Amino acid sequence: MLEWFELHPELELAYRMKESFHEIYNCSDKEDAQAFARTWLDSLSPEMEYAFGAARTALTNWWGEIFNYYDHRVTNAYTESTNWLAKDMNRMGRGYSFEVMRARLIYEKQARKPTTKVRGIKPKPFLPEKVMYRFGIIDEKVKTIEYGPHIPTLCDLLDKSYFS
Fold first, then answer.
1. Within 13 A of 134's CA, how many CA atoms are on the CB side?
2. pLDDT tens by residue, 120-161
3. Taking the alpha carbons of 21, 26, 31, 32 in that order, is the dihedral positive or negative?
4. N or C: which end of the chain has fewer CB within 10 A?
């Protein structure tokens, strides 16, 4: 790379800008990440604008959504992957609209099972559940969290023509 950078200084500049952009996600908290992103946007030189214009636009248009990552440490990668699978299936001509196929992929119970987690400990009931809630015997902090469909499971189901 160093030899290429000597021959093409703009390539090194683009590489450094790209690497710097990825550093946003190495920040420890939301405020630092937003400050780093503002600095990155300000440092984007006019000669690199053509190469990073889409990144600049996405960053500014989706600022809140992008930096919500620091509040929850969860991305929409599952949603994007599921949409991609639905579009592929739609192109294969399975006979469903994109919206129907996406819904089938997102809500498929078999695919959601590996990513469903139960948080907290629920005691074994010794009274009817209504009574236990009323008297505070059941911990209401127990909850089920679903992180979306498990993409490898969806791919296996697709390979087996489950959605046909």
1. 5
2. 655 555 667 666 666 666 555 667 777 777 888 888 887 787
3. negative
4. N
